[in-house]
Every structure is written in structure tokens, then in C-alpha cells.
Amino acid sequence: MNKFETYLGGCGKCYPRPQKDMGEFSGYAASLRRKISDITEIIIPFFEKYPLHGNKNRDFSDFRKVAQLIKDKAHLTKDGFEEICKIKEGMNRGRSN
Predict the structure, then answer these.
(1) What is the phi/psi pair of residue 85, to 5°?
(2) Both ends of the chain: CA-CA distance in Å?
(3) What are the residue ranges spanned by the domains of the chain?
(4) Phi and psi of 22, rounded to 5°?
(5) What does the chain look like in DSSP terms, one character per residue?
(6) What is the pTM for the complete model shown?
(7) Cβ neighbours of residue 20 closer than 8 Å, sequence gap 6 or more
(8) Over its length of 97 residues, how does the chain's per-residue pLDDT go in tens digits?
(9) How far apart are the C-alpha atoms of 85 and 36, rounded to whole Å?
(10) CB atoms < 10 A from the CB of 80, how many?
(11) Ramachandran angles phi, psi of 15, nearest 5°
């Protein structure tokens, strides 16, 4: 897990989970990195090269859409912000199969 963190250039953080005898990687790059370029140039290309499966791949697709909206500065408009909120609502547990 630590090598994964290093490979991504610090765009995530590994945390021990002793109760499960394993580690966890928090990939919330936006909360750890402030530059959209880190997300678009490091995180997104990594998961395009090594795709996720199932609903996580759909979540990644939505994450990529949001990153593009932010890169295009759409989040600074009311419509763009509402679009990001709508995308977020459908991610993770909010996704209907």
C-alpha cells in the first residue's frame, strides 16, 4: 500500500486498519491535493491504465466528469455547480444499478 501511495506521488494516503489486519488507501485526492492538475494528470491516467470494475468503474467515470468540469471552471457557475452536485448524488451508495 505504501508503494501505491508513493507511485501516485502523494495523491492519497495509506492508513492501518488493525481490526482487519490490513491497510486502507484513501484515494480522496481532492481532499489531499489542491491542484486539479494532480487529479487530471496523475490520478485519472492511473485508473485509465488500471481500470476499476463494477460500480467503482462507474463512480470513476463520474469522478472524471467532475474533474473535467472543475478543470473547465464550470464549478464556478450555478449551473456547473448543480451539475456536479447531481453527479455526486448518483455516486457510491447513491447509484442505482
Answers:
(1) -60, -40
(2) 30
(3) 51-97
(4) -155, 180
(5) -HHHHHHTTTSSEEEEEGGGTEEEEE--HHHH---HHHIIIIIHHHHHHS---THHHHHHHHHHHHHHHHHTTGGGSHHHHHHHHHHHHTSGGG---
(6) 0.71
(7) none
(8) 667 667 777 676 666 666 655 555 555 444 444 678 888 988 899 899 999 898 889 999 999 999 999 999 999 999 999 999 999 998 887 766 5
(9) 17
(10) 15
(11) -130, 135
Residue type, 63: F
Which residue bears the cell 451539475?
83
Q: Which grid cell is 31?
A: 481532499
Is residue 13 within 8 Å of residue 25, measured between CB atoms? yes
